[in-house]
Structures are given as C-alpha cells and as structure tokens.
Design a protein that fits this description.
The complex is a heterodimer of chains A (474) and B (510). Chain A contains 17 helices and two strands. Chain B contains 17 helices and nine strands. Classes of the chains: A mainly alpha (474), B alpha+beta (510). Chains A and B meet through helix 7, helix 9, helix 10, helix 11 and helix 12 of A and helix 1, helix 9, helix 10, helix 11 and helix 12 of B.
C-alpha cells in the first residue's frame, strides 16, 4: 500500500503539469457536459415540447461554468507551483543549508528543481538524491491540493450554473452574451498591449530620467553607457537618421519606379510574375539581410574605401574603412524596404481612376508623360504615405544595424565608418541583462520610448494622409 | 519633329529606368539567395575521420551517471587518438604515448560525447570493434575544402631517377637530407615573376610519407618527416607549396601534413553533414546543428499561434460584425493599425519589462518568446481576419438573419465558415513572419547557448533566427558557412509553409 502511494506521488510530481491538469479538466468537463445535457433532456420529456434553448446549449453552458474556474486554478498552479514547493522544501532542509546565503540556497534549489525534471540522471550525493525525491513528493502534494481546489471550484461553478437551468431559460442568449463579451475582451487585448507598451516604456523611462536629466539625454553629444555616466543620445539619433537616409535613397527611387513599371508598363502576366517576386524580399527575415550585409556588401565597401585611402591626393585615413559600415547597413536596409515602398505605391497608382489616364493619353501625351503629369500627382498622397511608412520601418529596423552597422556612437559623415543606432543600442544594452536596476539597462527603455513615439508619429501622419485623400491600402 | 524625338527619347529613358528598377530588385533577391546558398554548400558536407575502435576501459553506466560522462569521453578520446596515430604510421608504442598527450588536435575534445552517449545504453558494444566517423576540426575541415589557406601542388617525376635519394647516414635527429639537382632547388627558391613575395612552406609528399622542407641548399633539401613511415622518398613526388609560414596561419605544418596524409590514405573522407540536422548547438562549428533551434522555433510558434490566433480572430469578429459604430470602436481600430506598425524591438522591451520582470516568466523560454511574438502577430492576424470577414457577401448575413438566426449564429454558423480560408491564409502568413523574427527575442534572453533540445515550453532554448544571429557573431571562420546553412534551412521552412498555404488555398477555393 505504502509503495503504491509512493509510486503515485512520484508519478504525479514528475508528470507535466499540463497533462495533469488536462486529465482533471477533461474529466470534470465531460461529466458536467453530460449531466447538463441529461437534465435538459429531462426537461424536454417533462414538457413534451422543444426547450427554449437546445439541450446542447444547456450542456455547453454547464461545461463552461465548470471548467473556467478550473482552468484559472491550474494556470495559477503553473505559476505558483515552483515557489510554493521551494518554500516547503526550505522548511525541511537541515540547518547547514538554510544558513547559506540566499543566493546560494536559491541556486541549490533551482538545480534540484531542474534535476527533478530529469529523473534518469542519477546524482552522486545521497543527500541530494533524497532532497530531490522529497522535492518531487512535495510538488505532487502541492499539485493534489491544487487539483482538489480546482475540482471544488468547478463543482461550485457547476452548481451555480445548474440553478439557471430550466425549460424556459434563455441559455442560448446567456452563452451568446458570454461569447460577445469574450469577443470584446479579445479586441480589448490589442488596446491592452498598447497600454502595456506605453506603461512599461514610460515607467522604466521615468526611472531612468530620475537619474539622468532628460535634457542631457536628448541633447547630449556623448553616449557611453558602460560606466553609467554619459547618456547623450544625439549620436544614436544621428546614426539612426543616417542609416534611414541611405536606406530611403536606395528604396524610394527603386521602389517607386518598380511600382510604376508593374502598374503602368508591365503586361498582366509580367505583373503577376514580378510583383510576388519583389514581395519575396519582404518575406526574408531581417537577420538574413544582416548576414548578407556582413558577408557580401561590407567587404567590397571596405576595400573601395581602402583604395580611396591609398590614392595620393587623399590624406591618410581619409575614410574610416571599418569592417562594419553605416553604408553597408543602409544599402541593405534599402533593399529590404523596396517591397514596402513598391507595394504601397502600386496600390496608390492602381487607385488612380482609369478615366484620368485615358484622358491624358487621348490628348496625345506619351505614356511617360501621362505617368509623370497625371498619374503621379494624383497618387502623390498615397506615395507620400508609402514613403513615411517606409521611413518608420527603417528607423525601427534592428537586426541589420545590430549586425552590420557597428557599435560606436559617433557623429561622422564618413559612410564607411561604423556607427550605432537607437535600435542597435537597445539590443546591446539589454542582451545580457536580466535585472533592470542600472541606468544602463533603463536607458534602453528611454530609447525605446523615443523610438515608439517617433514611429507612431510617422504612422499617424501616414494614415492621416491616406485617409484624407481617400486612398486606402491593405 | 525634333520635339517629338525628344519626347520619344524621354519616354524610352523613363521606361528603361522603370525596367531597371524592377530588374535591380529581382537581381538583389537573386544575389541574396545565391550568395547565401553558395556559402552554405560548404557546411552541408564535412570531412570526417574514420576510426576503427575496440571499445574498452569505458564505464558501463555510460552517460547515465553525470559524473562519469567526462571520463568516458576522455577514454574515447585516448582510443581515437591512438587509432589516428597508428593510421599516421606511428609504431603501437609510440601511438599509445602519443594518445597520452595528443597534439595536434584533429577533432574537438567533445567530439566523442555523442559516441559516449551512444555506447552508454549498449553494453554489448564493449570489446566489439566497429568503425566510427569523427568530424574533423572545423579549421582543418575548411582547409581541406580549400577555403582557408592558399596552396598549390606540383608533381615531379624526374628528380634523380634511380638513385637512392636519402642516405641513412644523413639522418640526424629526424632530419633527412634529400640530394637534388641545383635547378630543382633553384626553382623552389626563386619566385615566379608576377607573384608577391609571400613566404612559403614546402612539403614533399610521397605515397607513404609527408615531409616538410626545413632547409634548402643548392644541391640538397633537409626534410623533416611529419606523417607516415620513413622510406626513400621514391618518385613520383608531390610538392605542396603552402603560402605563409607556420606562425602566420591558424593551422600548423604538422596538422597540414597529418590531414593530407590521412586524406590520401582514405581515413578522412568528405561526407554529407547530417549533424547539422540532428544535433543541437555546440561551441564547435563542426559539431553544431540546428535541431534545438528548430525545436525551439516550433515550440515558440505553437505558443504564438495558441495565444494570437483565437484572440485575433475573435477581435476581428467583434470589430467587423458586432461592434457598435462609436468612438471607442474607432479608437480600437486606430490602435490596432498603429500597433501593426510598431517596430518589433519595442515588443521586445514590452516582453522584458512585463513578461520577465513583472510576471516573472522564465527567461529564454518558448513561453516568454511565444507570448512576445503573439503580441507582435496579433495586429496582423486581426487585420487579415477582418479583411476576410469583410469579403463575405452581406447577402449571406441578411439571408440568415431573415430566417431567424441570432447575430451570433449568423457569425458562428455562416460568416465564419465562409471566411475561414481567407482567415487561415492571413493567420499562416502572420505566423510565418513571426517565425523569422529575431530582435524582440534577443531582449528576452533567447541568445543564450543551449546545447540540448528543449523538452517543454519552460525550457531554456533559442530559435532558428536567433541561432543565425548568434552563429553570425562567431569568431571562427567556419561559422560563416554554418550560418548560411542555418539560413537556408530557415528559408526552406518558410518556403514549405508557403507551399502548404497555396495548396490549402487552392483546395478551399474549389
């Protein structure tokens, strides 16, 4: 008997919580569904006429009322299971361990908890082995208590819902109202995400600004977060601007001209082949562009820069000729943005009424004159919006600059030097950090806040331009 | 007439410019794909050493017991080194001695860990002789693939034919003297016109041995035996000219000799690199694989889908079918449109602040990564689903309402099924995009080194794009082709998803 209980506790402690919870939820759910249906059918037999809501709705209603509280409990269990078992174990550990510094003790228990998920690994120390089995048993105990609680709450929900059941109950409308609020809640999630972004950026940003003056941050010329001292972000803004500028210089003409070709010159078939081909560029992950920039674009730029340096009339070190360069990052980002510009421009061009085009052609203009003097002006707001969205995209792009632009915060017009940007710094500041207690880590949130506001501004303006001029995309 | 010609010229110019823009875009796409694939080819094959091992001296419990794994790997390393030393022509006693202090390293010190794990569960292998393939160290692998060191090979068949080239009496402390004609020696010394003056290392290779030229005189060469068995360097000889001296390259002369010797003898062969598919990340490029990252990506994708798809579709239904037209609804709409254009990295900051710090989710795990990507994907799913719902003809709604269906029934029983293919397309596209997302995952710590395949959503892991980033920052040159290979795998997965998508779309449209 003892053995059976031990075995049971061990398997409960070792089982994945999701399965453990699923078993209970499924069992209770099936029971409540069946009972609800049987009860509804019994109403039907008593009345000998159809119910107001079908028995299936009755069953679903009871099912929902039963399993929702259970799911909530198991979700809580998933979060709290670790901390609770840890506390329980600490109370049982011998004193030689509990007097250890908190960090060490936590580390020890964390190791045990990791090992408790790998029963096949045997441990060298007998004590550790015993502590691990005890941990598993405690975990099982916590889970069983949690499961009991979940079942009780499930029963309570079932009982409450059962009170609502009657032959004339509007069960269907209850369910529909429930569904409706669920739908509304889902839509609200999007707002909650925005709120979360704003709050987290604002709170962490404010903490940062309590240590560093906002003026120093926005107008300071030195960026050196390593010693938690110099937080002047102007070099980062400059870097971001330069990269975005290069990217737009590449993508705006190529994107707009491509769209003109696809929309005005190309035959239907050519359009159907090349439009998706250009859009493939948008589907390539940005990390691939970053790699492409390092491997293919940066080396030739560097050797050209060195060649220029070796000319007799250029001073020594005229160009920085760094392995990472703002030019490489900007060019590749330009390629990445081409499809955004071209597809949004294409939408704008397509929206220009055919009558305008026909009128222009019938008055004797060539096709290019028609495009330049009629189509482009008509589509100008849409194209402007496309460019604004593209700029916003370029400012927020991260991987290409992290991989190819470099890490040095400097203000220079030399496109072959390495330079860092807002997004690249956010990644650098947070990549190895788990606790945000330093100004260094929190400055990432201030940078993120600036980034968020600037891109938001661009997007709002773009949307407004599009909306006011009656063109839509998407 | 002149004006007409000018207008025609400008027409042609404009047309050429626009054609040029399209070709440039497509050309860039082709260049990206070509350069990545071209580079990745080097990583999909690798050179491996075949060793025939008789397993003994291993602890039978194998890797089951944590503490015994290192000692088993050490034992295996000793056995492998011994076999390689034998293959290189050393005497058995020398080989045993060489295995005790192995130098140079032809393979990674943990290359045998797989084998240790394999034999751990198979005690019957103890004492049995089987052949195993050990991946060659990535530096040497790149060298054999001809990607790291410039070298050229010349064949000679006419040096002092018939004469015993090396006299035993010349042997002083492992240095052999090879008498040669002055012209031959001269030929080695003088640089060919037009070549830059880069110091070179010369190797003389015969069928059974590889020598290094350590000194050069007018009528003789001093040779040092690096690999193989000493014999008269019989003709034909091969002369291997390696650019740069030993101190200026990452690969020693000894390693070059050993690797070439083993390759000639067939112990080293180029094989299909299956490790890249079947293994987790490693600190050694030759041992690394993408399996853990693919598993991590899939787990993350599942979380993303579970979190974003139902919520996204329900939100779209609310906005498109049920929401009253008022300011609050407008606000939600604007909000969603803006959220779709927020830079991904900002979602990473959200994840770091809210999911990790506030809610205390474990760092570097699929659950945290998946939720961050879900926030990122949600607006895309909502917008795509709304478009699909809007495309459903309103006749259907009116007809259903007129037959007495409730608003909810209209949605769930009629509009939603009709819009399902469109919704599915949008959802899959959104998820495919999230599969390639990197930046937000860096902020929640997914760029850690994880050498194991994750077993659950709360295990530390990485995802394929993050792995690509991590590999691209690797110091060794061998990471370059590995990164390209990982990119090819990522792109393949995305192509597969898109093929699936177009298949489903065709099926449902019928």
């Amino acid at each position: 008997m003892e053995g059976v209980i031990d075995w049971l506790m061990e398997s409960v402690g070792l089982a994945p919580l999701a399965w453990f919870g699923f078993v209970f939820i499924a069992a209770m759910g099936m029971a409540s569904y069946t009972l609800g249906r049987i009860r509804a059918l019994s109403f039907q037999y008593e009345r000998l006429s159809p119910l107001r809501s079908s028995p299936t709705f009755h069953a679903i209603f009871l099912l929902v009322a039963t399993i929702v509280p259970m799911i909530a409990i198991f979700l809580m269990l998933a979060v709290l299971e670790g901390p609770i078992t840890r506390q329980l174990l600490i109370t049982e550990l011998p004193e030689r361990l509990t007097i250890l510094p908190r960090v060490q003790l936590n580390l020890y228990i964390e190791t045990l908890q990791t090992l408790a998920r790998q029963p096949e690994v045997s441990l060298a120390s007998v004590f550790d082995e015993a502590a691990r089995s005890r941990l598993i048993v405690l975990k099982a105990f916590v889970r069983l208590v949690g499961a009991l609680l979940a079942c009780l709450l499930g029963l309570a929900g079932f009982a409450v819902a059962r009170k609502f059941q009657s032959a004339d109950a509007h069960i269907q409308s209850y369910l529909e109202r429930l569904l409706r609020s669920l739908f509304f809640a889902s839509a609200a999630v999007a707002v909650a995400i925005t709120l979360g972004i704003v709050l987290s950026l604002a709170l962490e940003g404010l903490r940062f600004f309590s240590a560093v003056s906002p003026l120093d941050f926005l107008f300071g010329l030195t960026w050196n977060p390593q010693n938690n001292e110099a937080f002047g972000a102007v070099p980062l803004f400059f870097g971001t601007l330069v990269v975005a500028l290069i990217a737009m210089t590449v993508s705006a003409p190529i994107g707009i001209l491509s769209a003109i070709y696809l929309s005005e010159y190309a035959s239907r078939r050519t359009r159907q082949t090349f439009k998706p081909a250009i859009e493939v560029l948008a589907g390539i992950p940005t990390v691939v562009y970053g790699f492409f920039a390092i491997i293919v674009i940066a080396p030739p730029i560097r050797s050209v820069a060195r060649e220029v340096n070796s000319w007799s009339w250029t001073p020594d070190g005229f160009l920085a000729a760094q392995p990472n360069s703002v030019l490489a990052a900007g060019l590749v980002m330009g390629i990445m943005i081409i499809p955004f510009v071209s597809s949004l421009t294409d939408d704008a061009l397509q929206a220009v009424p055919q009558d305008l085009k026909n009128g222009s052609l019938s008055l004797g203009s060539t096709q290019s004159e028609m495009i330049r003097f009629v189509v482009l002006p008509a589509a100008a707001p849409g194209i402007a919006a496309a460019l604004l969205l593209a700029v916003s995209r370029a400012i927020g792009e991260t991987m290409i600059v992290v991989m190819a632009a470099g890490q040095r915060a400097q203000i220079t017009l030399d496109a072959t030097s390495d330079i860092t940007t807002v997004t690249a710094q956010i990644v650098t500041l947070l990549i190895g950090d788990s606790a945000f207690d330093s100004s260094k880590a929190m400055s990432a949130f201030a940078l993120g806040g600036v980034l968020f506001l600037v891109t938001l501004l661009f997007n709002l303006v773009a949307l407004r331009v599009v909306r006011r001029n009656g063109f839509s995309h998407g | 007439m002149k004006a007409l010609r000018r207008r025609r010229a400008s027409e042609n110019l404009f047309r050429c410019l626009s054609v040029g823009a399209v070709s440039l875009s497509i050309g860039m796409l082709a260049l990206i794909l070509f350069s990545v694939m071209n580079l990745s080819i080097r990583a999909f094959t690798h050179n491996a050493i075949e060793v025939e091992l008789t397993l003994d001296g291993l602890s039978p419990a194998g890797s089951r017991v944590v503490d015994e794994t290192p000692s088993n790997i050490a034992t295996l390393n000793r056995l492998i080194h011994e076999r390689i030393a034998l293959a290189l022509g050393r005497s058995p006693s020398d080989a045993t001695a060489a295995a005790a202090s192995p130098k140079p390293k032809l393979f990674a010190p943990i290359a045998a860990s797989d084998m240790a794990a394999y034999v751990a569960n198979r005690p019957e292998l103890m004492g049995a002789t089987r052949s195993y393939w050990i991946p060659l160290s990535s530096r040497l692998d790149l060298y054999l693939k001809g990607n790291s060191i410039e070298e050229s090979i010349e064949r000679f068949g006419s040096i002092d034919e018939g004469e015993a080239l090396v006299r035993a009496s010349d042997v002083v402390s492992g240095i052999y003297t090879l008498p040669v004609y002055a012209e031959f020696s001269q030929k080695l010394i003088t640089e060919r016109p037009g070549e830059k003056q880069i110091p070179k290392t010369l190797f003389i290779e015969t069928d059974n041995a590889i020598f290094k030229v350590v000194d050069q005189r007018n009528d003789s060469l001093d040779l040092q035996l690096l690999a193989g068995v000493f014999a008269d360097p019989a003709i034909p000889l091969r002369l291997r000219i390696v650019s740069r001296l030993e101190s200026q390259r990452a690969i020693s002369d000894q390693e070059i000799a050993e690797v070439n010797y083993l390759k000639d003898k067939g112990f080293i062969q180029t094989k299909f690199n299956s490790r890249i598919w079947t293994h987790a990340d490693s600190t050694y490029p030759e041992l690394a694989g993408v399996l853990s990252a693919i598993a991590g990506s899939m787990l993350t994708l599942v979380i993303t889908a579970l979190a974003s798809v139902p919520i996204g579709i329900m939100a779209a239904i609310w906005l498109e079918e049920l929401a009253p037209r008022n300011r609050a609804t407008d606000f939600i709409e604007v909000n969603i449109n803006n959220l779709a254009a927020v830079p991904p990295i900002v979602f990473g900051l959200l994840g770091a602040a809210v999911l990790l710090n506030f809610l205390g989710l474990p760092r570097s795990t699929p659950i945290a990564g998946g939720l961050v990507l879900a926030c990122l994907t949600l607006p895309t799913v909502i917008i795509a689903s709304r478009a699909a719902l809007r495309a459903v003809s309103s006749d259907m709604r009116v007809a259903a309402l007129s037959l007495g269906a409730s608003r909810m029934q209209v949605v769930t029983d009629h509009v939603l099924p009709a819009a399902a293919p469109g919704i599915m397309t949008g959802v899959i596209l959104g998820l495919a995009r999230s599969l390639g997302e990197t930046a937000p995952l860096l902020l929640i710590g997914m760029v850690v080194f994880i050498g194991e395949v994750p077993s659950g959503i709360a295990d530390e892991t990485t995802t394929l794009p993050v792995l690509i980033y991590k590999w691209s920052t690797g110091a060794e040159r061998a990471w370059e082709p590995m990164t390209a290979a990982a990119i090819v795998i990522l792109l393949l997965i995305m192509v597969l998803i898109n093929l699936l998508l177009s298949y489903l779309r065709q099926r449902f449209e019928r």
